[in-house]
Amino acid sequence: MKTVGLVALVLGLFVLVSAGAAYGDDVSPGETFDMSLTATQTGGSNCCSHNGTLGGSLTIGSEIGTSSDWTVSTFSPVCTGTSFFGSTSCASLTWKFAGLEFDASDDTLIGQVSTNYNRSGGDSATLTITFEDHNTADDPYTDVDNVNASNSRNGTISYSVSAPEPSSLLLSGIGLLSLIGMNLRRKRLA
Predict the structure, then answer these.
(1) Distance CA 154, CA 125 (A)
(2) Is 19 helix (H, G, I), strand (E, B) or coil?
(3) 138 and 183 together in one domain
(4) Is 170 a residue whose pLDDT tops 90?
(5) The domain containing residue 111 runs over which residues?
(6) Three-state DSSP class for 161?
(7) Quick one: DSSP state of residue 60?
(8) Are residues 6 and 54 in the same domain?
(9) Confidence of residue 59 (pLDDT cuts 50, 70, 90)
(10) Whole-angstrom Cα distance, residue 80 to residue 99?
(11) pLDDT at residue 47 above 50?
(12) What number is the average pLDDT over the span 23-36?
């Protein structure tokens, strides 16, 4: 009986470790991840006072081949702290994607997102963020003033994506319940 309990424990630990090793197998279409972005202006007009933070979420689309890369179907930032978008509400922004993907192996984004907005002075501007694979610290952005190019800005974005792992928690709970059940059964038989 002790051998059976030990084998069950080892198998349970193996399943937990292998399930938590990478998000690639745990990601599914429609899953939503939290994200946090911080913009730091490094050049251009009024350097370097236009910094800001964004929170929000992204939603996973479909898996790309057999890799750990997934398409992104929605990108929904929410302004926090200093508004980066002048007089435009974050909720009203429409984001355009250029090959935007989520790499589940290391929680990074790949590709570009861009949006048009109105600055505080009324000028139309286009913000473009370029996400580089395996880089979350200094991805470049450009903030082009569409009326007066001399008011354009550029800088870097750092970000994080929080990938939930409900399946690992579920497996942990099942493993714990199994161990409790085995212990109760052993006490009853003794």
Answers:
(1) 12
(2) helix
(3) no
(4) no
(5) 25-164
(6) strand
(7) E
(8) no
(9) very high
(10) 26
(11) yes
(12) 78
